[in-house]
Amino acid sequence: DDTGGGEPSISVVPETMDLGKVLVGNPRNVNLEIRNVGQAPLEVFEVLCAMPRISITPFVGMIPPGDFELVPVTGTCTIEEQVSGLMRVVSDDPDTKAVDVPVFMNCITP
After folding, report:
1. How do residues 87-106 score in pLDDT, each as one tens digit?
2. CA–CA distance, 26 with 66 (Å, rounded to integer)
3. For the chain, how big is the Rg over CA atoms in Å?
4. Distances (CA, A) of 55 to 38, 71, 109
5. How would you label 39-66 residue by residue, b for 16+ Cβ within 10 Å and e otherwise?
6. Which of 74, 21, 67, 14 has the alpha carbon at shortest distance from 44?
7. pLDDT tens per residue across span 54-89
8. Rounded to two decimals, what is the model's pTM?
9. Continuous H helices in 7-71
10. pLDDT tens for residues 13-29?
């Protein structure tokens, strides 16, 4: 191990993202926190979300041990509907290469 000992370890907050009730035409902004709870730098390769109503600000890079990055997430409703799906964070954590975060949103009209 050439990192000086230890390995990276990923943790995400929240583990399930529930945006709750979101008004049509009034986007909701929240953050996904990607933490490195390990003892070596964590490399995040990509943050993916294939849900049409959920947009993310891409993050790729290194997170030092004990540190975190915030990934902005925006839920936008255009019609009344229930929205659910997954975001995926892919990293070099040797134990958990990909973390799936369930995402829920209830689009309502005013």
Report:
1. 999 999 999 999 999 999 99
2. 35
3. 16
4. 28, 10, 20
5. ebbbebeebebebebbebeebeeebebe
6. 67
7. 999 989 999 999 999 999 999 999 999 999 999 999
8. 0.90
9. none
10. 999 999 999 999 999 99
